[in-house]
Design brief:
The complex is a heterodimer of chains A (161) and B (873).
Chain A: E1 2-9, E2 14-19, H1 25-40, E3 49-52, E4 55-62, E5 65-71, H2 77-95, H3 100-105, H4 107-117, E6 118-119, E7 122-123, H5 128-160
Chain B: H1 10-19, H2 23-42, H3 49-61, H4 70-78, H5 82-95, H6 107-114, H7 119-132, H8 135-148, H9 154-170, H10 175-185, H11 191-207, H12 209-232, E1 240-241, E2 244-245, H13 247-261, H14 265-281, H15 287-302, H16 307-321, H17 326-342, H18 344-348, H19 351-358, H20 363-376, H21 382-395, H22 398-415, H23 419-433, H24 439-451, H25 456-469, H26 474-493, H27 508-520, H28 526-542, H29 547-556, H30 563-578, H31 580-586, H32 595-603, H33 629-639, H34 649-657, H35 677-685, H36 695-706, H37 713-723, H38 733-742, E3 758-762, E4 766-774, E5 781-790, E6 796-804, E7 809-813, E8 828-837, E9 847-855, E10 858-866
Antiparallel strand pairs in B: 1-2, 3-4, 4-5, 5-8, 6-9, 7-8, 9-10
Helix pairs in contact in B: 1-2, 2-3, 3-5, 4-5, 5-7, 6-7, 6-8, 7-9, 8-9, 9-11, 10-11, 10-12, 11-12, 11-13, 12-13, 12-14, 13-14, 13-15, 14-15, 14-16, 15-16, 15-17, 16-17, 17-20, 19-20, 20-22, 21-22, 21-23, 22-23, 23-25, 24-26, 24-32, 25-26, 26-27, 26-28, 27-28, 28-29, 28-30, 29-30, 30-31, ...
The chains are: A alpha+beta (161), B alpha+beta (873).
Chain lengths: 161, 873
């Protein structure tokens, strides 16, 4: 089971945190501090796994961002690496060659996409196409709601004229 | 409208934060935004609620407190529109965790949304529930989730399946409700539903044996077929990763098959073919392929034995290990660890490669490899492996040395073929990384040294040499100091020279030099210095010619700021000055320490799980297991009649040797030989590990708290000095001691809840009952009043009660009311005990007892274990 997902920039700034196991706010910031110092200090050629407090943290660097997933000790680390890659590819397709800035200004979208891939710390959907289709469908709902709101306000505006 | 909230959009706020040049500037921006958001919250602003929450989430990620926004999440979730709900649920998952009370308030909204007509809203609710639901919510909402497992849209079914995993993990009783709908998911064609169904079944099988049985019987064949179809499926762009169709599904299927095959020959049999196919056909040049292979090998290793498959698996491991990719090597080491139990021989073949990995530049790989080497060591290969590891110790990084030394020491002591080799290796480790070894390690070394009578001379000379080069290693210094104190004469007179040794000339003053360096070393800590003082005293008695010089050194410590050193110096000085005639008997060589007891204690969770004499003498083959009895005798001699402190030689001896310097809980009253021989042993050994008593001082303590013996002013002084060392465990005892000296003992405190008394032990001749009380506000500590009744018609004399407890307990024994037990129940002996349970609420009390007495002048011993303590103690 995945306990949490972290996105940390090379400067140690947090870009996304997702917790599937209960950690108090205090523990969360401690975890982030501990792990970012440990992971950011690792050299480029080393393996992508860090053992930490009886868990295994699998991380991979994409450009300026470190994607980290904390797993149980006996989970398949190589699969976790693939999950990270799967997520990155999905982001890439969504944003069209994603960069850190996309994830900063659209952090909520990064969360929404993650929520379509993982749930309860387990793999939910392995097809990027399905994931993106679901995201698109929900965005249509948003647009529809927005239009409705604006047409509503224009009706009100006309009525009160 | 609020003047603040009208302003910035989310994007603008993020820009402003990013544009901040200093942390202070950033804080200012955040403060301003938070103020605006709070104002908006107070005004119950509807229009910008979701924008404000989005801002809060960003601020939260930067690490600022955002608890004031929690209620906003609930409001958004309760609003009707999809956009509001979507951001509300996101905020809920980010800003709250399952332990917050606020979360309970959302249960109702969740229930409504799970029944919503819009499937995306149902999806949002399932997602939130799956990520943060608590046990109570799980109970409340399980029926809804169960129903959604049959929802028409597959995307809801898959979410409901994962949500069910969370629910059964939180409330395992609910597992059986899900069995049927979960197994139905295994027949689905939609990959998302299938993979989540497989995961749900895996967790169900782990939680409920009933589910395991059901899935094994009904679904093994289906799963095998699904995996075969998947492995043979043609290229499908939607799920393809590096030429493999849906590796994630592969892996989850293999994982479930592993659970089903474990311990069941039939199920294992039916999956053999497909496992063989996956293991041979999977492409291993990409991460995804290797991940599948890795999972497949794990499954092969765990299911019931099939020789051919195992060979196949081990061969893949070999390929993994020789891979140049660090990730693959790491995984291979991990797998080999699991393969060791299945096929140790096959793993041994890779020993050389594994040993290389111990020296890898990657800490994760080093750690794995070290663990693996550790399990690969046996009697036949211990010498070369230990040599490799010790050689590596010299060049290893500092932060790895702790792990490495611990493992080396453990290997060496477990498999050493002979004592001299053990001592040699330990000396190497201590000289190389003595600052990294744990206390138990050098304690164990000293025990082995005392037992190797014929090597005393050799050892002390070797230590003397090592000290010349590695005086900066604390634990080496300690062992050296101790050995010179004990065997200094062998060092100076070159006694017991072995053939392999180079001759060495050490004068008395050379030996004193070592001690002087040790005691004056700037880095030496209290324990080392105290040990050095004892060693000096001992040495002076062996070589009276050095007495003057030693006296000078000791005198320098009379004014030391450390109380312990000061006291020792003053006492030793008076021994040197005034008690020349008894000095040599006072500081005789230590009796041989009992290895079996020490090992037992080291290993022992429950002391006396095996009685000390039957404890296997692990480790050194030529070490004879000495019965613990003489040591107990020694203790009995010195403390049986609870002498006034510092008045008899025996007590003084204790004082001299008990280097119990750590601020340890003073627990056992030495007025009784309260714990079994092990403690005494450690006292003699002068180790400062917690949970033991430095005897004579405790004498004062216990007699004082009891208020039974007259307290002299001298005692008061000592107990004053004690108070600096006694800690919470002894509670307020030292303070009370002072009062005791002047007034009547304070009345018993108001006792806490009442517990039933128990008959702790009963034999034909003796009955022991315990009654319990607790001090309010201190639930961990239980006061036990033990009452002994003589059921025979003969009086018992020299009555002694001893008790031992596991490590999670701490025991304090007060002196007994008498050491004579009248016959036929005409009176009783009472004794009070205090037990502190560090695992209160998790583990129950348990105690081993031993009762010794004289019946018509004949020694009698009764032993027993008490397991029937009331649960809540």
């Amino acid at each position: 089971m995945i306990h949490f997902v972290l996105l940390i920039s090379r400067q140690g700034k947090v870009r996304l945190t997702k917790w599937y196991s209960p950690y108090s706010q205090k523990e969360r910031s401690k975890v982030i501090r501990e792990l970012s110092s440990e992971i950011l200090s690792r050299g480029p050629k080393l393996c992508n796994f860090v053992e930490w407090r009886g868990f295994k943290v699998v991380y991979k660097r994409y450009a300026s961002l470190y994607f980290c997933i904390c797993n149980d000790q006996d989970d398949n680390e190589l699969e976790t690496l693939s999950i990270i890659h799967h997520y990155v590819e999905t982001l890439d397709r969504y944003f069209g060659s994603v960069c850190e800035l996309d994830l900063i200004f659209n952090f909520h979208k990064a969360y929404f996409i993650l929520d379509e891939i993982l749930l309860a710390g387990e793999m939910q959907e392995t097809s990027k196409r399905t994931t993106l289709r679901l995201i698109a469908a929900q965005e249509e709902l948003l647009e529809a709601a927005k239009e409705e709101a604006s047409s509503l306000s224009s009706i009100i505006a006309q009525a009160t004229k | 409208m609020n003047p603040f909230s009208s302003g910035t959009r989310l994007r603008d706020m993020i820009r402003a934060i990013r544009a901040s040049k200093t942390a202070a500037e950033e804080r200012a921006v955040v403060r301003k935004e938070c103020a605006a958001i709070r104002a908006a919250i107070n005004e119950n602003d509807q229009d910008y609620r979701h924008r404000n929450l989005a801002k809060l989430m960003f601020i939260h990620m930067l690490g600022y407190p955002t608890h004031f926004g929690q209620m906003e999440c609930l409001k958004l979730i309760a609003s009707p529109g999809f956009p509001e709900k979507r951001i509300g649920y996101l905020g809920l998952m980010l800003l709250l965790d399952e332990r917050q009370e606020v979360l309970m308030l959302v249960t109702n909204s969740l229930k409504q949304d799970l029944n919503h007509t819009n499937q995306y809203i149902v999806g949002l609710a399932l997602c939130a529930l799956g990520n943060i639901c608590s046990a109570e919510m799980a109970r409340d909402l399980a029926p809804e989730v169960e129903r959604l497992l049959q929802f028409r849209d597959p995307n809801i079914r898959k979410k409901a399946a994962l949500c069910s995993i969370r629910i059964i993990k939180k409330v395992p009783d609910l597992a059986e409700n899900f069995i049927n709908s979960a197994t139905a998911l295994l027949r689905e064609k939609h990959h998302g539903v299938l993979i989540t169904g497989v995961q749900l079944c895996t967790d169900l099988c782990k939680i409920s044996p009933e589910a395991l049985e059901h899935v094994r019987k009904k679904c093994t064949d289906v799963l095998v077929r699904t995996l075969r179809d998947l492995a043979n499926s043609p290229y499908s762009p939607e799920y393809d990763i590096a030429g493999i169709t849906d590796p994630f599904l592969h892996i989850r299927l293999l994982k479930l098959l592993r659970v089903l095959g474990e311990g069941d020959a039939d199920a294992s049999d039916s999956m053999n073919d497909i496992l063989a196919q996956v293991a041979t056909k999977t492409e291993s040049n990409k991460v995804a392929g290797n991940a599948i292979l890795y999972e497949c090998v794990q499954t092969i290793m765990s299911i019931e034995d099939n020789g051919g498959l195992r060979v196949l698996a081990i061969n893949s491991l070999g390929r993994f290990l020789s891979n140049r990719d660090n990730n693959i090597r790491y995984v291979a080491l991990n797998m080999l660890m699991k393969a060791v139990t299945a096929d140790g021989q096959a793993v041994q073949r890779h020993r050389a490669t594994i040993l290389e990995c111990v020296k890898d530049s990657d800490a994760s790989i080093r750690k794995r490899a070290l663990e693996l080497v550790y399990v690969l060591v046996n009697e036949t290969n211990v010498k070369p492996l230990a040599k490799e590891l010790i050689d590596y110790l010299e060049v290893s990084e500092n932060d790895f040395r702790g792990d490495l030394t611990a493992k080396i020491c453990s290997i060496v002591s477990k498999f050493s073929p002979e004592k001299i080799w053990y001592i040699d290796q330990m000396l190497k480790v201590l000289s190389e990384a003595g600052n990294y070894v744990k206390d138990e390690v050098w304690h164990a070394l000293i025990v082995v040294i005392t037992n190797a009578t014929e090597l005393h001379g050799y050892t002390v000379r070797a230590l003397y040499r090592a000290f010349q080069t590695s005086a900066e290693q604390e634990s080496l210094v300690r062992v050296t100091v101790w050995c010179i104190g004990e065997y200094g004469d062998l060092l100076v007179n070159n006694v017991g020279m072995l053939d392999i040794e180079d001759p060495i000339t050490v004068t008395e003053s050379d030996a004193v030099d070592v001690l002087e360096i040790a005691i004056k070393r700037h880095e030496s800590d209290l324990t080392t210095k105290a040990m050095a003082l004892v060693a000096l005293l001992k040495f002076s008695s062996r070589f009276p010619s050095c007495s003057e010089r030693i006296k000078e050194i000791i005198v320098q410590f009379k004014g030391n700021l450390m109380l312990e050193l000061q006291q020792r110096a003053i006492e030793f000085n008076s021994i040197l000055a005034k008690h020349q005639n008894i000095r040599s008997t006072l500081v005789e060589r230590m009796p041989v320490l009992d290895e079996a007891t020490f090992i037992g204690r080291k290993a022992g969770s429950l002391p006396g799980a095996a009685s000390t004499t039957t404890m296997p003498s692990v480790g050194i083959p030529n070490g004879e297991a000495k019965p613990a009895a003489p040591l107990i005798d020694l203790l009995d001699l010195s403390s049986d009649d609870a002498p006034a402190p510092s008045s008899s030689g025996g007590d003084l001896l204790h004082d001299l040797l008990g280097v119990d310097l750590s601020p340890a809980p003073q627990q056992s009253g030495a007025g009784q030989p309260s714990k079994s021989g092990t403690d005494v042993l450690l006292d003699l050994l002068s180790v400062g590990s917690p949970a033991q008593s430095s005897s004579s001082t405790v004498d004062i303590l216990s007699s004082n708290t009891n208020g039974k013996s007259p307290v002299s002013p001298l005692d008061d002084i000592s107990s004053l000095s004690l108070s600096s060392r006694a800690n919470s465990n002894a509670g307020a005892a030292p303070m009370m001691d002072l009062l005791d000296g002047f007034g009547p003992s304070p009345s018993k405190e108001n006792n806490g809840p009442v517990y039933p008394s128990i008959t702790a032990y009963e034999s034909s001749s003796l009955r022991l009952t315990f009654s319990f009380s607790k001090q309010p506000g201190n639930p961990e500590t239980t006061n036990i009043q033990a009452t002994f009744t003589n059921l025979s018609s003969t009086v018992y004399t020299d009555f002694v009660f001893q008790a031992a407890v596991p490590k999670f307990l701490q025991l304090h024994l007060d002196p007994a009311s008498s050491n004579t037990l009248p016959a036929a129940g005409n009176g009783s002996v009472t004794q009070s005990l205090k037990v502190t349970n560090s695992q209160h609420g998790k583990k129950n009390l348990v105690m081993r007892i031993r009762i010794a007495y004289k019946l018509n002048g004949k020694d009698t011993l009764e032993e027993g274990q008490i397991n029937n303590f009331p649960r809540e103690l």
